[in-house]
Specification:
The complex is a heterodimer of chains A (54) and B (405). With 54 residues, chain A is an all-alpha fold. Chain A has 3 helices and no strands. Chain B has 405 residues and is mainly alpha-helical. In chain B, helix 5 runs parallel beside helix 7 and helix 17 packs across helix 19. Chain B is elongated and about 85 Å long. Classes of the chains: A mainly alpha (54), B mainly alpha (405). Chains A and B meet through helix 1 and helix 2 of A and helix 1, helix 3, helix 5, helix 7 and helix 9 of B.
Chain lengths: 54, 405
């Protein structure tokens, strides 16, 4: 039984797979953005007014 | 007047959608963009921005089919209007979306388009971003074709080639980013480069890249990035056999997870620490961390995680000779594996129960065909070949279990 006990201990330790969990932490994707506020900032003020008055 | 009203209304709706998405509330933003589309606009630049932002919102909401649809609309539109920069951006977004959908060959085509147009118009930022996306596509492609039971560094030539291509793109990307002095983007690239080096089995290089990522994260006080870096450094140190160093980094990752109030990543850090202390043969500490993992898994209703925790706890208690406790957790592992339909877990749990019953001096009787087969001598001994003295890193995956069975 002691022999079995020893064997069991090693089994446990082994299958503990104290291993890597294969959990890689990836960095986020970078999506390209098209912003409307950015679009208006770039647009000359006059043309914006003109646009609004069409 | 009608046209003015239409314009104003479409713009107002779209701007509200944009505001909500900028705050990170994508599900609230989507209806505003959709309403803006319903109203319609004659300004094709506005329409392009709506398509693009809707695509990104759906991407963040993980509705990749819809994301693909809107980025595709955007691409078509930019081609019609001859908006080159807009076409580059739409291509980049299509590339990223196709990557997530596992359509790597198509993703590569759009990454190339993103890169080509950016190069044509002399847009360095666009070039750098296209190269980063390229690296991500090859990284994901490599990961998608490697089987779960192969250790990092032991993949086939074909898979390694894919990872090497990813490394090449990340390195080209880093060159441009260094030229531009864009530290934030450098941080991201270092992180993913480190993970690719890890998969290639270049653990020293992986540590160096992740250390660089860590440094940049600290520069900007980016706690989430710091946590990611610590976790990745820990993973690499495990493979370098430097378990104490791994434990130190996982502990920092745990501390940051708690600070960020992210329970799922807190659980992950606890589990990694449990495994690391098992490697260090400090089973009491291992049990402490596995229990923490168990509690969070239960709180989050994560039955798979709970089963994994019970299995690890059963093993750690067995290692300490606490066979009664081990039996408790092993039985729970069996119960959860049954419930979640995890055949591999079920088989492992049955084998462990039978071992423990023997050691506890109980006579066992069961109707399980698995057990009777094993009793008849078909019992796989594989796990016994591994001891902590000649430690082998192995994962117990369904594939492996099938081999055992």
């Amino acid at each position: 039984s002691r022999k079995h006990d020893e064997e069991l201990k090693s089994t446990a330790a082994a299958s503990c797979q104290a291993l890597h969990s294969d959990h890689l932490e990836m960095e986020p994707e970078t999506m390209e953005t098209k912003s409307l506020s950015g679009y208006f900032n770039k647009m000359p003020f006059e043309s914006l007014i003109a646009k609004r008055q069409v | 007047l009608l046209s003015y009203r239409m314009e104003a209304s479409c713009l107002d709706l779209a701007l509200e959608g944009e505001r909500l998405c900028k705050e990170g509330d994508y599900s609230a933003g989507v209806p505003f963009f959709e309403a803006a589309m319903q109203v319609g606009t004659e300004d094709l630049l506005v329409l392009s921005a709506i398509y693009s932002q809707l695509g990104n919102a759906y991407f963040h909401l993980r509705d990749y089919t819809k994301a693909l649809e809107f980025h595709h609309h955007d691409l078509t539109l930019t081609r019609t209007t001859g908006d080159r920069l807009g076409e580059a951006k739409a291509s980049g977004n299509l590339g990223n979306t196709l990557k997530v959908l596992g359509r790597f060959d198509e993703a590569v085509i759009f990454c190339q388009l993103h890169l080509d147009i950016s190069t044509d118009v002399g847009d360095k930022v666009g070039q750098a971003r296209a190269l980063y996306n390229f690296g991500n596509v090859y990284h994901a492609k490599g990961k998608s074709i490697c089987s779960n039971d192969t250790e990092p560094g032991n993949f086939s030539e074909e898979i390694n080639k894919t990872f090497i291509t990813a490394v090449e793109y990340y390195e080209m990307n880093l060159c441009i980013l260094k030229e531009m002095g864009d530290r934030v983007a450098q941080g991201r690239t270092c992180g993913n480069l480190g993970n690719t080096q890890y998969l290639l089995g270049n653990f020293c290089n992986a540590v160096a890249s992740h250390q660089q990522r860590l440094l940049i994260a600290k520069e900007f006080g980016d706690l989430a990035a710091e946590r990611r870096a610590c976790c990745n450094i820990g993973n690499s140190y495990i493979f370098l056999g430097e378990f104490e160093k791994a434990a130190d980094h996982y502990k920092r990752a745990l501390q940051l997870a708690r600070q960020l109030r992210d329970r799922a990543v807190e659980a992950q850090a606890c589990y990694s620490l449990g495994n690391t202390y098992t490697l260090l043969q400090d089973y009491e500490r291992a049990i402490d961390y596995f229990l923490k993992h168990l509690i969070i898994a239960q709180d989050l209703g994560d039955r798979v995680g709970e089963g994994r925790a019970c299995w690890s706890l059963g093993n750690a208690h067995t290692a300490l000779g606490n066979h009664g406790q081990a039996m408790n957790f092993t039985e729970r592992h069996l119960e959860i594996s049954n419930e979640t339909g995890d055949r591999c877990g079920e088989l492992t749990a049955r084998l462990n129960v039978s071992d423990l019953q023997t050691v506890l001096g109980l006579s066992y009787s069961t109707n399980s065909s698995v057990l009777s087969e094993n009793k008849a001598g078909a019992r796989p001994k594989m796990s016994r070949r591994y001891s902590m003295d000649n430690l082998q890193l192995m994962t117990l995956t369904p594939e492996k279990c099938q081999k055992w069975a």
